[in-house]
Write a structure and sequence with these properties.
Elements (H helix, E strand, L loop, with lengths): L1 E6 L4 H4 L13 H9 L7 E4 L3 H10 L6 E2 L16 H4 L3 H8 L12 H15 L7 E5 L1 H11 L16 E6 L4 E7 L1
Parallel strand pairs: 1-4, 2-3, 2-4
Antiparallel strand pairs: 1-5, 5-6
Helix pairs in contact: 6-7
């Protein structure tokens, strides 16, 4: 079956390159405009993170669909880094430790990469039995990276699946393995 993984549109925090995980930011004007000018494939069903930026994105792209909300597909909790950007964190020893870990160390007061990836995989696996062909997932960049790292072949690293706001991937999913067949955005 064909699935679409779409990263939410831009927020003010994204424009400032901030770690925005659990913060429930709305889309900014530029983010709304970009979504309104792009074309996305028709979807039979929509699954979304319950955070506002994803719900607003889903309503712009698929205004005739009511998304199924999936709490387990929300973004990583960045803990003490939440709302901050490189300029805010540069020079902080704990930030350098996180960078040196390749992003795998737990965010101070937040989630670690393994736990975040396990959470998203578990939430996705609960949805698999009820998925329809041409289901769109309107979620977060980290969520997309976690799911594709886990299920896509050929196997690639987490950060290899980065996508811009409003972008994403088209995959063929056989119930166990995903094959990336295109990009969105």
């Amino acid at each position: 079956m064909e699935l679409y993984f779409i990263r939410h549109g831009k927020t003010a925090g994204n424009l400032e390159k901030r770690y925005i995980g659990v913060t429930d930011e709305p889309l900014c004007g530029a983010g709304r405009l970009e979504l309104e000018t792009r074309r996305y494939p028709a979807a039979r069903a929509v699954v979304a993170s319950p955070l506002r930026r994803c719900l607003e994105t889903a309503s712009i792209i698929y205004p005739d669909k009511t998304p199924l909300l999936c709490r387990g597909l929300r973004e990583c909790d960045f803990g003490a880094f939440e709302g901050k950007n490189y300029d805010d964190l540069n020079g902080a020893p704990v930030y350098q430790q996180w960078i040196d870990s390749g992003g795998k160390m737990a965010f101070p007061g937040g989630e670690d990469m393994a736990g975040f990836c396990a959470r998203t995989a578990s939430a996705f696996e609960e949805l698999v039995p009820s998925l329809a062909d041409k289901t769109a997932f309107v979620v977060h960049g980290g969520t997309i990276m976690a799911l594709l790292e886990r299920y896509a072949l050929p196997q690639r690293e987490f950060y290899d699946y980065r996508t811009e706001n409003g972008g994403g991937f088209i995959v063929d999913f056989d119930g166990g393995v995903m094959s990336v067949i295109g990009r969105l955005g």
